[in-house]
């Protein structure tokens, strides 16, 4: 270890620039959060399916969050050794040669580019795109660039760079144009085998200028630059403070719960139920049952997601059916989750397929729909809450199997994070259905911690990101699968869950088509 203060302590800042707010958190070298600042911003929806923000809001929120943090910090700004930024992935803003935004940023969950997806599929082909980039066509940044070319040609003509959130903020802090492989890969046009080069052959076939992407692509844990005098005046941080490259929010969150080696799976029990595992070798799947992130450690993170995750489905259930317990306040989610204790494992056959916002592997179908089947008059609110937990756990197990098949590495431990990870019954259900040990960690703000881990490694407080994670991530609780419950869940998973949607998806599409005709 190196670069500690005279007191023997080290202090670093992890910043999470998310979809609706920016959080800046000061950590010590053990991963303990010492101070925090937050500032929110709006999301603009100018048309159905369009989601935008002003890039200036990101900067203003970063400045505000850092100043709020420093106001309650127990240490002086000069004692802070480094800072790193994690961010909402895919989101990008077009800027001119003076690096001034030409229009609003287009956010990750903006779906305006479906026409450009179809064009790319016909012109280049799914297999070639996946083999070169690790991604099937989708919401990725490059398809938003194609949309700008097609729909806003003046903006595309004047666009000097298409900057990701981290790129934009790093430039405002340091004056340097730098991106990271962990951020760039989700543009959908990075060379996934090289990791520091753009897939120029794919860009040429897409008819997108390679020059709009930031040339300097660094690994995580590298010095991107140092804070300029102007940025120091605005933020209150000392000029010369190193800004370290990190990754997008999901890979930072996975590092922030200590997923640093193969055989581990990080699961985000938040709005979407995203999951990543770790592998040294490029794990391209011939069936493309997952996409490929790049860890700030330089390893690969095969990833997939259930678009309607724990908090989104629990919110839907609570608000739609006004479910509430006698001892539950408006914000007492623990009591709401604990309703599931009133239903037995297997839920008397009531089962949920969680495709409320479409499905990923093996269907890759945005027209997929959620299904809840097996109702009896005996089923009540406890069973509906448990159905969500079990359905998400079944689908996580399915995605876990795809990753095991693609990497050749069995998964032996899940690290759970996000809001749902605070629930004991949620964690136990996931352990029982997955059949492996599940652990939770002390720090709730795992994405910011993941950025801080990169910041600590980047200035030598630890020798590597892996070593930093081993010291800064503290396991809070472990859950072992119950052997009796596991036998029941194995049979329900194999015999029922994995077969049900295949038998009804054609009827769901037929119903959707009929409704569209009459709407």
Protein architecture, described:
The chain has 519 residues and is of the alpha/beta class. The chain folds into two domains: 11-251 and 448-472, ATPase, nucleotide binding domain (Nucleotidyltransferase, domain 5, 2-Layer Sandwich), CATH 3.30.420; 257-442 and 482-518, Nucleotidyltransferase, domain 5, CATH 3.30.420. It contains 17 helices and 21 strands. A hairpin with a 3-residue loop joins strand 1 (11-17) and strand 2. The radius of gyration is 23 Å and the shape is globular. The termini are far apart. The model has no long low-confidence stretch (mean pLDDT 94).
How would you describe this structure in keywords?
519 residues, alpha/beta, Nucleotidyltransferase, domain 5, 6-stranded mixed beta sheet, 39% helix, 18% strand
Tell me the Rg in angstroms: 23 Å
Return the CATH class of the largest domain.
Alpha Beta
Q: Tally of extended strands?
A: 21
> Strand share of the residues?
15-25%
**CATH fold type of the largest domain:** Nucleotidyltransferase, domain 5
Largest sheet: 7 strands, mixed
């Amino acid at each position: 270890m190196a670069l500690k203060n005279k007191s023997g302590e080290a202090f670093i800042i992890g910043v999470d620039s998310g979809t609706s707010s920016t959080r800046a958190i000061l950590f010590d070298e053990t991963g303990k959060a010492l101070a925090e600042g937050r500032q929110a911003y709006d999301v603009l929806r100018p048309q159905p399916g369009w989601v935008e923000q002003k890039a200036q809001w990101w900067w203003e929120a970063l400045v505000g969050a850092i100043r709020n943090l420093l106001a309650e910090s127990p240490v002086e700004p000069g004692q802070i050794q480094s800072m790193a930024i994690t961010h909402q992935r895919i989101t990008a803003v077009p800027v001119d040669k003076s690096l001034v935004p030409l229009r609003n940023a287009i956010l990750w969950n903006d779906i305006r580019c479906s026409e450009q997806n179809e064009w790319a599929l016909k012109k280049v082909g799914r297999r070639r795109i996946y083999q070169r980039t690790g991604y099937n066509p989708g919401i990725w940044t490059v398809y938003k660039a194609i949309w700008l070319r097609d729909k806003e040609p003046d903006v595309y003509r004047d666009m000097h760079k298409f900057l990701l959130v981290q790129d934009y903020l790093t430039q405002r802090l340091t004056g340097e144009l730098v991106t990271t492989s962990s951020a760039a890969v989700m543009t959908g046009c990075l060379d996934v085998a090289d990791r520091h080069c753009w897939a120029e052959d794919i860009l040429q076939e897409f008819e997108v200028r390679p020059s709009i992407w930031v040339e300097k692509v660094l690994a995580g844990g590298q010095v991107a630059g140092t804070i300029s005098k102007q940025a120091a005046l605005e933020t209150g941080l000392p000029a010369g403070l190193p800004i370290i490259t990190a990754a997008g929010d999901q890979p930072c969150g996975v590092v922030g719960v200590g997923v640093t080696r193969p055989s581990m799976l990080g699961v985000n029990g938040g709005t979407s139920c995203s999951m990543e595992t770790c592998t040294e070798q490029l794990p391209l799947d011939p069936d493309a049952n997952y996409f490929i992130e790049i860890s700030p450690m330089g390893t690969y993170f095969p990833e997939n997601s259930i678009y309607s995750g724990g908090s989104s489905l629990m919110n839907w259930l609570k608000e739609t059916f006004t479910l509430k317990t006698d001892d539950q306040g408006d914000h007492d989610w623990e009591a709401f989750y604990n309703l599931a204790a009133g239903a037995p494992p297997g839920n008397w056959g009531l089962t949920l397929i969680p495709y409320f916002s479409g499905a990923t592997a093996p269907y890759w179908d945005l027209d997929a729909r959620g299904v809840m089947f097996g109702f009896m008059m005996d089923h009540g609110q406890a069973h509906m809450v448990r159905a969500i937990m079990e359905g998400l756990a079944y689908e996580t197990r399915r995605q876990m199997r795809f990753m095991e098949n693609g990497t050749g590495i069995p998964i032996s431990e899940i690290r759970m994070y996000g809001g749902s990870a605070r629930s004991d019954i949620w964690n136990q259900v996931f352990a029982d259905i997955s059949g492996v040990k599940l652990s939770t960690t002390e720090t709730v703000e795992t994405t910011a911690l993941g950025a801080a881990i990169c910041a600590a490694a980047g200035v030598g407080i630890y020798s590597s990101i892996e070593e930093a994670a081993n010291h800064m991530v503290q396991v809070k609780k472990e859950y072992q699968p119950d052997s009796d419950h596991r036998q029941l869940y194995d049979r329900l998973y194999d015999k029922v869950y994995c077969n049900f949607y295949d038998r009804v998806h054609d009827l769901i599409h037929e119903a959707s088509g009929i409704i569209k005709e009459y709407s």
